[in-house]
């Protein structure tokens, strides 16, 4: 039985309709800042947006734009948004002209994240037993998405990004994160030195991940508050960071480039989370 | 000092020049089979192609197409190819019209892989101590590239793919693999059942990786010949495989989707390779 949503969709027939202007040419605009606004794409991310919207922790949905024939299958999900979130629908042809490419998923949302710059209170408020991922200079959106997905998968408490890292709310990073950017607490502000200084003051044990690290990641016996620091692919972490903190490595074939930073974060977080007893295992 | 290559480049001014027809609209053609031919993109992959070409193990370079101003910086690399590999050069405008998009890397090569269907001899010839990654139904090129990059990084002996998996030589998979597809021995043929049957006959210990796996990956004490089996994202491995073989899991937050298969392969391979003593660690 197909039920219809209690929400009346608004039909869009003109790709230049100002009411859906935020969705125009999203592939190009993906690289421009939007003051906390972001584009969520696909059903999975929409579901995470719905959950974050309902939780009222600073993430909200502004408007939705759907392919007309997707309405019926999304009834329950649409009803989870408050009634002041308008739902626009369009034909595939109009939708493709709005987005600027063939949008086969047919599900877009405009969201808004409240911008907060409360790094020090945020760090102080972390639990006594905490696992935090710190990203420095992460410039690739796929890697950013992978980092969030892994942080969520391995029960990290927060992601902290330096100001040179890219915005995790960019459409592609959000999609690769499978929506985790919307549920994982994070901050993006300050320099790496400032972030790590604040974490040190809060008695975090800081481990910089690098192919040149001193301790094999699988051998670390972490304390109660741990920050794992990962850097950009290619250059890796600045030597000032590697010299100032403990460093961990992931043994691999030395003839090859270092691992992808997303994969490396997954391997390291799995180990740390497991060693800290943060992963429940079926018995 | 900039030295010039001993090789005389051939200038292309017409995007429809038949001599470079294989490079036309590569983004669209990425999804079509080419009987073992493939497009390598970027300096890093070109270097791997050069090494594979020199090794004479069935991979060869057919022709190169470069942005004119890249020649000077690539002298050494170009000289590593045999002199019967023509090098075409073009201006940025012509190159972009050939490729069908802005090719800022400016480095393309057409390669050829000898197609071999020798699964059983290949498996028999693996070393007494072997680590093999088996992919079933891997349909996403990014994931395929990540799997090869991890297999190479953690010193696997081979990658075996069932016939439903995508071609690792596709441009994007090759690029994400950082060229590892050109150096890692692999086969793509037969069904998953046939692959695993052959591995079982060759006394491989077979571990299927799944969120529902019975043994935590970090607790496995592997034997001398180990095959790790990973499936497609979303559906995962077919239940017939999970029921027929030992299964391993990676503990994670149960509320979330399973890990990305590329990341999961990295975590599992790191553990297996390390437990098997295949990763040398600095002392």
TrEMBL record, chains A, B:
Pfam families xref list: SpoU_methylase
Any single GO BP term: methylation
tRNA/rRNA methyltransferase SpoU type domain ranges (all copies): 131-270
Annotated keywords: Methyltransferase, Transferase
Record carries keyword Membrane: no
Presence of keyword Methyltransferase: yes
CDD domains: SpoU-like_rRNA-MTase
One example GO MF annotation: methyltransferase activity
Record's protein name: RNA methyltransferase
């Amino acid at each position: 039985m197909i039920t219809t949503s209690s929400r009346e969709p608004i039909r869009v027939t003109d790709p230049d309709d100002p009411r859906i202007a935020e969705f125009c040419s999203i592939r190009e605009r993906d690289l421009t800042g939007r003051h906390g606004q972001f584009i969520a794409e696909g059903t999975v991310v929409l579901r995470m947006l719905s959950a974050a919207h309902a939780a009222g922790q600073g993430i909200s949905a502004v408007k939705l734009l759907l392919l007309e024939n997707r309405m019926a299958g999304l009834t329950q999900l649409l009803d989870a948004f408050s009634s002041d979130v308008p739902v626009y629908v369009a034909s595939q042809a109009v939708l493709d002209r709005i987005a600027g490419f063939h949008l086969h998923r047919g599900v877009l949302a405009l969201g808004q994240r409240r911008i907060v710059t409360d790094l020090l209170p945020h760090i102080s408020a972390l639990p006594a037993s905490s696992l935090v991922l710190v990203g420095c200079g992460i410039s690739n959106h796929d890697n950013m998405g992978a980092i969030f997905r892994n942080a969520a998968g391995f029960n990290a408490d927060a992601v902290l990004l330096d100001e040179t890292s890219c915005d995790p709310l960019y459409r592609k990073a959000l999609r690769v994160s499978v929506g985790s950017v919307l549920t994982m607490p994070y901050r993006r502000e300050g320099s790496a030195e400032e972030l790590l200084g604040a974490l040190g003051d809060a008695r975090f044990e800081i481990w910089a991940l690098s192919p040149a690290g001193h301790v094999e990641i699988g051998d670390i016996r972490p304390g109660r508050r741990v920050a794992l620091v990962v850097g950009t692919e290619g250059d890796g972490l600045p030597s000032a960071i590697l010299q100032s903190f403990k460093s961990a490595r992931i043994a691999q074939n030395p003839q090859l480039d270092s691992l992808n930073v997303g994969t490396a974060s997954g391997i390291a977080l799995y180990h740390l989370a497991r060693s800290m007893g943060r992963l429940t295992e079926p018995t």
